[in-house]
Amino acid sequence: MIKDLYLLHHTIKWKTFKILQEKLTKDSGPVPVNGDKVLWRMLKDKKIYCYFCQEMKWDMGVGLEIPKCKKLIIIKSHKKPLK
Predict the structure, then answer these.
(1) How do beta strands 49-53 and 61-63 pair?
(2) Where in the chain are the domains?
């Protein structure tokens, strides 16, 4: 079971999503062109869930269901721009 799950809310802005991807994931190997944008679009359309957790360090989880966890933290966009 996952201890802390950081779930991205479907109203998250593209800029916030991209910053999280750049800071919390490390790409290794081939990466699809505009893959981040496709994931963000699917999240916005409520077709998938995107999340981060300690058990998947340096990667973002993607799925059709929210995994079981002890603590769920929802990440939304900030009103102030992130740097």
Answers:
(1) antiparallel
(2) 2-75
